[in-house]
Amino acid sequence: MNSGGNIDLTGLFVSEIAQWLKEHKVAPYRASQIFHWIHQQTVQDFHSMANLPAALIELLKDKFGHPVPLDLVVNKRSIDGTEKFLFRLHDDATIEAVWIPEDHRQTICISTQVGCAMNCSFCATGKGGFSRNLSAGEIVAQALWIENYLKEQGLSISNVVYMGMGEPLANYDQVIKSIRLINDATGLNIGARRITLSTCGLAPQIRALAGEELQINLAISLHAVSGDVRSEIMPINKLYPLNELLGACDFYVEQTGRRLSFEYALIANINDKVEHAKKLVELLKGRLCHVNLIPVNPVGEEKRPSEHNIKEFARILDEANIPVSIRKERGTDIKAACGQLRQSL
């Protein structure tokens, strides 16, 4: 694991690696070679960096231990092919990431925090509390580890979703840096439009994100059409009420021209009725958006609506010309589905 303090090589751009090398009296041109081995070749040990001199390899080993600052504890495969990975970090904290294979798409879901402070009622992660933010290097490391895992099967990551443990925008700077690293053309080179960030609704950070000039997809966890209900199931609504959140969303669309996705977890007898669907139409009519309906996954006392209610909800939105889809259930049997990650298998 990383023995170089708070520095992870996986979280450094070429220019930052070059600066570190200069400080250690090593030719800075080696930085691009190191970046290539880590981010493009996804090597798991320094000895695999064939064009580096032995002395530099020993220096890197001494300072960082391994190129990727996490270790696999265990992984688990679902009957539908979804795979969940439990990783241990340098301080023995654990996080989860998920690989979701489907046709020609290889999507990974990565975490941004150890635990989560948002405490949404339908999410397992928040029930374990919040420990700390992940560094950009720890976030990127999940993608690099899984990419190396997929290479062994002749596959490669096509899409990245920031929907794992934690609230991404509560770890704003490190998450933005990780996105730029994952998007780097000399590294994993995942196109920005194949990267999705999901947030429970931190309005100031949504406005800040609008100025980052990132062509990523932004998904807003809405989950309710009234402030009272949203505050009950998502405490963040007390800090950034629905109207303030929607105002930030409008600003984001105005600044970026990008369509938003509104995620709506359908919970029986809470937000799944016809009147809720009609109210959602009122809220979103005229907005550049798409609605992703997510029948709630088993976590606490919340129950999933009937198939009839799910389809009726979708029908009302569709007939009002609100683009809508129902998320396909993946990995529920191994607790890898939306809202089920909680730092253990």
Concise structural overview:
With 345 residues, this protein is α/β, with parallel strands linked by helices. The chain has 12 helices and 12 strands.
Question: How would you describe this structure in keywords?
Answer:
single chain, 345 residues, alpha/beta, DNA polymerase, domain 1, TIM Barrel, 2 domains, ten-stranded mixed beta sheet, two-stranded antiparallel ribbon, 12 helices, 35% helix
Describe this structure in words.
By secondary structure, the chain is α/β, with parallel strands linked by helices. It folds into two domains: 9-64, DNA polymerase, domain 1, CATH 1.10.150; 91-334, TIM Barrel (Alpha-Beta Barrel). 35% of the residues lie in helices and 19% in strands. It contains twelve helices and twelve strands. It has a ten-stranded mixed beta sheet, with helices on one face. Strands 5-6 form a two-stranded antiparallel sheet. It is elongated and about 70 Å long. It starts with 13 loop residues before the first helix and ends in a 19-residue tail after the last strand. The model has no long low-confidence stretch (mean pLDDT 93).
